[in-house]
Amino acid sequence: MRGLGKLCITALLLSAIAQRATAQEVLENDSLTQAMNREVSLLVDSARLPQKPIKDMSLWRPDPKRALWLALVIPGGGQIYNRKYWKLPLVYGGFLGCLYAMNWNNTMYKDYSQAYLDLMDNDPGTQSYNQFLHLGTQITEANMPRYKQLFKQRKDRYRRWRDMSFFVLVGVYALSVVDAYVDAELSVFDISKDLSLRIEPTILDNHSSRNPLDAGAVGVQCSVRF
Asked: Quick check: 183 and 82 in contact, CB under 8 A?
């Protein structure tokens, strides 16, 4: 009897241990299932978030005011904003050409001004004007007045061309600003495809006539619809 009781107790203990292990496995499986469910729910929620709409660049239109300010601040910035990249060589070519002309004319003006001053002071030590003379040519008392007039005319000419180059530079800058604004303005200007010419008879009022019979006249009216 005692042996049978020990066997029953041992069987009960083994059954309790097995049930406990099974319960622990069930709890672990439940926690793993819950974690997977949470991850799936997070993925579903993230998929349901509103997506940022993709811009259709073919429907993009520039803002005229922004194009104007960009052109004022950055030379050529308005053309870049309007995406008219083919105009950039014209804009920057105009700027570089004017800057080169301004620098070259200013250099020539300074050289001829110094040569003219050296020619006027009659100092043998200052003869920078010789670099502008042809080989073998010398300035004497006989041809001195002619060369004075010649150097004065050339220094005035290069000074005038230098100033003109500056004004042309300002004109290129202003033209680039106007072009950027007008280009952006025309891009948002809506022109209907329905263009039609309508010709119809009409009555023209002549208020200057005192005769009631001549107050009106029959004519033809042309109107364009767009």
From this structure: yes
Distance CA 120, CA 126 (A): 10
Cβ neighbors of 111 (< 8 A, separation 6 or more) are 128, 131, 132
Query: Residue 63: helix, strand or coil by DSSP?
Result: coil
Sign of CA dihedral 61, 66, 71, 77: negative
User: Does residue 86 have a pLDDT over 80?
Assistant: yes
Tell me if the pTM is above 0.90: no
Count the residues in the chain.
Answer: 226
Report helix, strand or coil for 128: helix
Contact status, residue 69 vs residue 82, Cβ threshold 8 Å = no
Q: Which amino acid is at 142?
A: A
